[in-house]
Amino acid sequence: MTFSERIWPKVEPLWATYLDHPFVKGLGDDSLDPKKFQHWLIQDYNYLIEYARLFAIGAAKAPNLKIMQTFTDLLYGVLFDEMDGHREYAKEYGLSLENIENTENAEVTTAYTSYMLNVSQAGNVENVMAAILTCVWSYYYIGHELAKKEDATSQPHYGSWIETYSNDDYKELVDQSITLMDELAAGKPERELEQLEDIVITTSRYEYLFWDMAWNQENWRTPDSFSHSSTSY
Ligand SMILES: Cc1ncc(CO)c(N)n1
Questions:
Q1: Which stretches make up the Thiaminase-2/PQQC domain (predicted)?
Q2: Does any ligand 1 atom lie closer than 6 A to the CB of residue 139?
Q3: Do the interacting molecules here have an ipTM over 0.95?
């Protein structure tokens, strides 16, 4: 059994909860409050900057040239293709990239990216790929599911979001990631496989929190008496 085959039944029930989350439902039926989408966009843009570092760590830790090329390919995809999409949304909403980049990461964004960077730096290349897997794959899981609705991708507000994460180019990127994960995990002892599973499960929990953070437009939970906030949008 491949790693992706053994992890699927463990994460699919978690991912299914994303489909029930009002943020994701709002993308699906195009009813999402644009303010909530903008909160996601701003946090996700900054998330992607940290997330991109994972691919660079993967390239640095790659055991051979082919794997180095794969990580670099995926890195390019995040920094240019995926983030270009975000830059287009920013333009549509009149948000300046400078303001977005200067916005403080929310509590959840900080926790999620710090966790991924930590397990990646502490371990070998398979840890890096395990930290990436949920991000890449669960967005396709959502995009693919939402795209099943007739005309979903041509809806005026969030149709392009659904298109981005369900199209064939994105699927290819997901397949490439799953294949690499399976190659890296093949033949590893059970104890190590369980550690990799933990990473995929923990990131799956963070994904839910990220949707919830965007829905609630959260930054940091702080005591009422502590009013510091450098959020600048
Ligand atoms: C939080 C999050 N997870 C996954 C993706 C997909 O790359 C994304 N853009 N944002």
A1: 8-216
A2: yes
A3: yes
Ligand 1 centroid from CA 135, angstroms: 5
Which atom of ligand 1 is least distant from the CA of 134?
Answer: 4
3-216 in CATH: which number?
1.20.910.10
Helices 168-185/65-76 angle, 10° precision: 150
Distance (Å) from CA 38 to ligand 1 centroid? 15
Segments in 62-122 forming alpha helices (H): 65-76, 83-92, 97-102, 107-122
- In 3D space, the residue among 90, 60, 83 whose CA is nearest the CA of residue 72 turns out to be 60
**Burial class, 210, CB count within 10 angstroms (exposed 0-12 / middle 13-18 / buried 19+):** buried
CA of 140 to the centre of ligand 1 (A): 10
- Give residue-wise pLDDT tens across range 198-216: 999 999 999 999 999 999 9
Q: Is 23 in the pocket of ligand 1 (CB under 6 A)?
A: no
Provide the token pair at 137: 């794959």
